[in-house]
């Protein structure tokens, strides 16, 4: 594999159950919950596209058809909008299926594990082939201060500079370190990763630097996942594969969010926080909401 290869492929994991949002997610994929007027996963796709990603692989499951339909063309709706002269709405709808080349594959377990965030990477490996690629969780957002900016672009630029696996990261409170893969940087380094531990026991994390749902991965990671034994909870963890990659003497680089903030939407409280963060930049809604909220308190 040439380290000079341009990154044009992105893989998004969207096969989760979203049980924290039941009953809403009984028939609606969690990644399709709206942040104002676009579903969560739309923002993830936009971030990738703004970084030059042209082919996006969605690792789904059988009940994710609404998500697949969303990124497909809806000729009937487009014609209705055209006939009604709702041209601004028409433009918004047409842009969705034009953003990228979308590929859908069903997530399937391996012979060693049925669950884990390493499985969608392994499932997509035959499509990404021998190329480096961006991997993202479909419910993790990175809201940039400048709307035109893209955190994926920061990851790609990091890879182009260091030719190493790149992990998106952000500091979290001490009482949340047991929820994420936690990063220890090499002594004296501000970027090279010495160790990454998946969901360490409370009080044992090597730092407060958490890996979240953005990575640049290489085919070597997929090869390691093929041989890797299940880790914590009997699941196949991407962080365990990255740790094995480090132990093989390979370089892994941390990329903190610059000029923005990671926002998880994995539970209702954090979803509401993300919703408000995006609402703040929408002048047509924010002033009215502030007045309403002031009445409530």
TrEMBL record:
One GO MF term: UTP:glucose-1-phosphate uridylyltransferase activity
Swiss-Prot/TrEMBL catalytic activity: alpha-D-glucose 1-phosphate + UTP + H(+) = UDP-alpha-D-glucose + diphosphate
Positions of the Nucleotidyl transferase domain: 9-279
GO BP field: UDP-alpha-D-glucose metabolic process
Signal peptide: none
Enzyme class: transferase
Protein name stated in the entry: UTP--glucose-1-phosphate uridylyltransferase
Coiled coil regions in record: none
Family: Belongs to the UDPGP type 2 family.
Keyword flag DNA-binding: no
Record EC number: 2.7.7.9
InterPro entries linked to this entry: GalU_uridylyltTrfase_bac/arc, NTP_transferase_dom, Nucleotide-diphossugar_trans
A Pfam match: NTP_transferase
Keyword vocabulary terms for this entry: Nucleotidyltransferase, Transferase
Superkingdom as given in the UniProt entry: Bacteria
